Amino acid sequence: MAKKTIYLYPESQKKALALGQRLKDARLRRRFSMETVCVRADISRPTLSKIEQGDPSVAFGNYVQVLRVLGLLDDLSLIAKEDVLGRRLQDESLPQRKRAPRKPGKL
Hints:
Blueprint: H1 10-29, H2 34-41, H3 45-52, H4 60-70, H5 84-93
């Protein structure tokens, strides 16, 4: 069965490439070989290579495993943490309180 090709918008592709490079940099800073990360993450060397290249066809779980090995798993909780647009849309859909008009002469 042939693998389905995943196409990303150019901006999304740049973000994926940047993530891959950051993961590679983190691995090198820790002085971990590819083999070490592969064994600890239980993935193949080609899969790690694809992750470090920002390949979108790699399963998300593999990215999670690499983050765990690198000690960066807590960074996952930062993804979509501040959903400004979602909050704004939610606030707009909240019911607005209506007040009765003031009667003249009373404060």
